[in-house]
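Exercise 7.
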Amino acid sequence: MFVVIGENVREWSKSDTVYEKHRAHMVTHIEAHDFLVSGPRAGGGSVIVALGDDEAALQAILDTDPLVTDGFMVFTVHPFIPGLHDPAVDLTFV
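Solution. The predicted structure, written as tokens, is:
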């Protein structure tokens, strides 16, 4: 599992065409079960909780995000092993 921190390196807004492309990219990887959750951070940037244990495969996904390919964002990947979690949340697939 990974926590991914996105940092804006250039200004963009939700009304920009690149945002719709980015959102479609995120939806594709949520539906493929690559990402558990994703969303904006207060103050700018984003957070993704990514599933799996293949950092190279995750990096390939992140490198094709339109916000990255168009120079708006960079991602930093932080691997981690879940320890404690809410028992109401099923993490057996992780």
